[in-house]
Design goal:
The protein has helices at 6-20, 86-97, 152-165, 325-346; strands spanning 62-65, 201-207, 210-215, 221-225, 242-248, 251-257, 273-282, 285-293, 302-310. With 347 residues, the chain is α+β, with helices and mostly antiparallel strands. It has one domain. The chain has a nine-stranded antiparallel beta sheet, with helices on one face. Strand 7 and strand 8 form a beta hairpin. Residues 1-47 have low confidence and may be disordered.
């Protein structure tokens, strides 16, 4: 099902660059000051003087990686502690390099999988994972550090949806998860949540009036207008919503609405509203910060912050498409199981 193609990925990015009329940074542009991974808490969010595009806008272009094992929600034992001290961070990082991680850590493909390949052969090695460089104890910011309480009506809505599909999970492709159908994969779905060590690359290409975000996983591309246009009509709904961008100083702000009720980001509904912010902390760090709100799902908005590090390209193609062999195999297996059960029942 999966393949990687250097030529295909290079061609896609080349086309994007041509369409957006992307231009190189002005010659002689001084690099912004460097922010150390062990800087004081919050330093990763301070922007210096970023390099500029010929149109004067901050240059966010490049390939960026967000891989981290910092959890989305803060472990309960840490209470309201938002940041690790430099010593604590160093000790945690050392333990991870030795293969020692906290119980319940979200390791993704780095988890041991006895019934599959030895994935360390492919680079999914827990000793190569890392915590976010801003030393936060969770990606979610603030003293609570967790997703807010889900409203009773939202819990009821999600329970009814699950109950409706129960016992019909293998009836057809429409009953399978969007990720399994290669419509919305993990790190591709917005807001972008990082994995431990795989498929986290994001390539940014800029041009006058547009910014393009090319995801490694599922090779999907978001072309975001920054020319001041409004959102599309409210009756037009999309899995990834409708995104429009604008600049606030050195920060690219992307506002997304018009999601479908099938997007269901952590149980959200159609009123999901996402605001993403991209700014360069230094030459090698892009700070990604997002705020989500849905008055029909949570009792208040919540925000997460993810520092992305400059990565060496190119971004190879991660090819997956709806109707892929995985879906065919899953449904065929279900039909065989049903036939065997019917045959057994008829004896």
């Amino acid at each position: 099902m999966l393949r990687r193609s250097h030529d295909s990925a290079t061609a896609v990015v080349a086309v994007i660059a041509v369409l957006l009329l992307a231009q190189a940074p002005a010659m002689g542009q001084a690099a912004p000051p460097t922010v150390s991974p062990t800087a004081k808490p919050g330093a990763a969010g301070k922007t210096g003087t970023p390099p500029r595009m010929p149109d004067g806008k901050p240059d966010l272009q490049g390939v960026w990686g967000s891989a981290t094992i910092t959890p989305l929600e803060r472990p309960k034992k840490l209470g309201a502690k938002e940041f690790y001290t430099e010593q604590e961070f160093a000790e945690l990082s050392k333990r991870v390099s030795e293969g020692i991680v906290e119980e319940g850590a979200e390791l993704g493909a780095a988890n041991k999988q006895a019934v599959r390949y030895d994935l360390e052969l492919y680079g999914f090695d827990v000793t190569k994972t890392k915590f976010a460089s801003n030393r936060r104890t969770s990606l979610i910011v603030g003293p609570e550090g967790v997703v807010p309480t889900m409203l009773p009506e939202a819990r009821k809505r999600n329970a009814e949806r699950a109950a409706k599909n129960k016992g019909h999970e293998f009836d057809s492709y429409a009953n399978r998860p969007l990720s399994e159908r290669c419509i919305l994969m993990a790190q591709e779905r917005i807001p972008m949540l990082p994995g431990a060590d795989d498929n986290n690359l994001l390539q940014i290409v800029q041009g006058p009036g547009y910014v393009s975000l090319y995801h490694e996983i599922d090779h999907s591309t978001r072309v975001i207008p920054t020319d001041g246009r409004p959102h599309v009509a409210k009756n037009i709904r999309q899995y990834q919503g409708d995104s429009v961008g604008h600049w606030e100083g050195n920060t690219l702000v992307v506002d997304t609405t018009n999601f479908t009720d099938k997007t269901a980001f952590r149980g959200s509904g159609e009123k999901l509203h996402l605001v993403e912010r991209f700014s360069r902390s230094d030459d090698n760090t892009l700070l990604y910060r997002f705020t989500v709100e849905d008055p029909d799902t949570w009792d208040k908005p919540w925000t997460a912050e993810i520092p992305m590090s400059k990565a060496q390209g190119p971004v190879y193609e991660w090819a997956c498409h709806e109707g892929n062999s995985m879906i065919v195999t899953i449904l065929r297996g279900a039909r065989v199981t049903e036939a065997e059960a019917a045959k057994k029942a008829g004896k």
